[in-house]
Amino acid sequence: MKIGIIGSMQFTEKMLEVRDNLNKMGHEAFVTDLHMALVGKSDEEKEKIKLHQKNNMDAIREFWRAMQDADAVLVLNYDKKGIKNYIGGNTLMEIGFAHVLNQKVFLLNPIPEIEFYRTEIEAIKPIIINGDLLKIK
Length: 137
Fold this sequence. Notes:
By secondary structure, the protein is an alpha/beta fold.
């Protein structure tokens, strides 16, 4: 299965680890081509780089193009900013893109308790794998 890895780019190193694990399992997993600028950077540096990429490098469309022939996305929704299983605005858009493209949406962890868009995430009926990559089928 071809799987795009999405989530907060604060977790770039974890994205690469999960990508590599999925590839070892026989999937074709990928992350945004813009990830390299973020590897090894502090959270503060990553925030600046992310803003630059969104504003000057068309980062949102870059991933839209990459996910066109994917079968699924895997959302790495780790805890962030004091929110358990965090999903940010950009990731929510990518989940919407996947839904419109009729792709499966896997969540590594349960849907976060974010009142503004919990129902939108529930409506697309994501498959929650509770950290178990073997549940991706």
